[in-house]
Write a sequence for this structure.
């Protein structure tokens, strides 16, 4: 099979350290389909115009690049990706947090003529992509998958150092009430553990994140890990809600989510619900760590008491759930069920995700190869051929005339007079 030429456009976000999950996602194709040619371009400062001079089978816009919609104006975004508009290749977008600046993302992808969108919320494509979904194919995808490095990180000899572990950031209010659960579950469970002298390692501060092997070690040092669904309950179409919220919080810095919601986006929270499982759910399953999760759908993949211990969203059953951590047989059964469901099937491995993308590229390439050009293209091509033939004829004539002028000046002068006489007639 011939090699594919694939360009992957990303953003390094000012040289920050990437989490292991982001690295695995960015280099998935190269790691699991290595026989192709890959070119990585940091698109923050713009894309090179020389791309159109090379044969490219596919251009992939990674989610790290697509999140620039939060940092730049629409005019700047379209200026950066302008070189892509004329390239005839499969153009694939792999966005995340699609509910954040959704209209900007939709219009941006439409200007690039994206052919395929791998979405975390494909069933809600008409809401998120009212423009792009009419011309682009929207396919389902998760926020992350299982990498071989994750499976190798499993170490049953690691000693359990605490009952409950958790790391999460406090998301901005424009992620809706759903987004606040990431902080709330840590806050409530930490207070309960402190009150009842239960060993824990729970931190929701900004600089508490672990990276690489340290993160895997942290998870395996916990008897159970807290979690909730990833996503948002608020559709932020453009920058309006964000600007209102930021302005309100400058004058009311201690305002609660409920107060801020009434002031900045009244009645809009929970009109839409965008939920999905996160890479952490897959990591815990692969490392055989029991999960205490807020009740939710989890893409229909995880069931309460079968794959996780369910914590009510009002935390009313927190005492009963933590008491179950003493039942080692139950914890082993839950972790084994989650491992079998998410890991053994291999459906949620990066290898499968990579194959889906490569197969899509091959199908599109074959379609382009066998597709007859439209009449307008055929005319343009014939017109170009005619111009090329005329240019060659003129070039031959001028080269021959120059030769005559140099060696036979009288003959060249006669031809020149004849041509001038024809023009005047």
């Amino acid at each position: 099979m011939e090699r594919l030429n694939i360009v992957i456009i990303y953003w390094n976000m000012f040289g920050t350290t990437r989490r292991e999950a982001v690295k695995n996602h960015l280099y998935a194709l190269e790691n699991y389909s290595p026989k192709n040619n890959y070119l990585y371009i940091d698109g923050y400062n713009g894309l090179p115009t020389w791309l159109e001079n090379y044969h490219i089978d596919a251009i992939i816009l990674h989610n790290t690049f697509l999140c620039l919609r939060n940092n730049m104006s629409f005019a700047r975004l379209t200026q950066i990706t302008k070189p892509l508009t004329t390239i005839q290749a499969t153009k694939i977008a792999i966005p995340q947090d699609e509910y954040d600046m959704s209209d900007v993302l939709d219009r941006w992808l439409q200007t690039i003529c994206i052919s395929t969108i791998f979405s975390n919320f494909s069933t809600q494509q008409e809401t998120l992509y009212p423009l792009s979904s009419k011309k682009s194919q929207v396919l389902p995808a998760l926020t992350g998958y299982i990498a071989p490095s994750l499976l190798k990180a499993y170490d049953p000899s690691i000693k359990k150092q605490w009952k409950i572990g958790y790391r999460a950031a406090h998301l901005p209010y424009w992620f809706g009430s759903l987004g606040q659960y990431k902080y709330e579950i840590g806050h409530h469970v930490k207070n309960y553990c402190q009150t009842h002298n239960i060993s824990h390692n729970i931190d929701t501060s900004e600089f508490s994140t672990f990276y690489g092997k340290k993160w895997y070690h942290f998870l395996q040092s916990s008897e159970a890990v807290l979690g909730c669904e990833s996503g948002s309950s608020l559709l932020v179409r453009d920058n309006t809600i964000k600007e209102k919220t930021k302005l309100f919080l400058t004058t009311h810095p201690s305002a609660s989510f409920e107060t801020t919601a009434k002031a900045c986006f009244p009645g809009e929270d929970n009109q839409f619900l965008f939920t999905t499982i996160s890479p952490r759910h897959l990591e815990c399953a692969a490392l055989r760590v029991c999960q205490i999760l807020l009740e939710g759908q989890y893409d229909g993949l995880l069931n309460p008491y079968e794959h996780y211990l369910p914590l009510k969203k009002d935390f009313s059953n927190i005492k009963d759930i933590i008491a179950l951590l003493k039942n080692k047989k139950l914890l082993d059964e839950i972790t084994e069920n989650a491992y079998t469901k998410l890991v053994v099937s291999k459906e949620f491995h990066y290898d499968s995700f990579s194959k889906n993308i490569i197969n899509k590229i091959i199908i599109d390439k074959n379609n382009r190869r066998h597709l007859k050009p439209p009449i307008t293209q055929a005319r343009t091509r014939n017109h170009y051929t005619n111009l090329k033939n005329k240019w060659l004829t003129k070039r031959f004539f001028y080269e021959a005339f120059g030769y005559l002028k140099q060696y036979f000046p009288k003959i060249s002068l006669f031809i020149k007079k004849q041509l001038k006489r024809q023009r005047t007639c």
Summary: The radius of gyration is 29 Å. The mean pLDDT is 87. The longest helix spans residues 375-407.
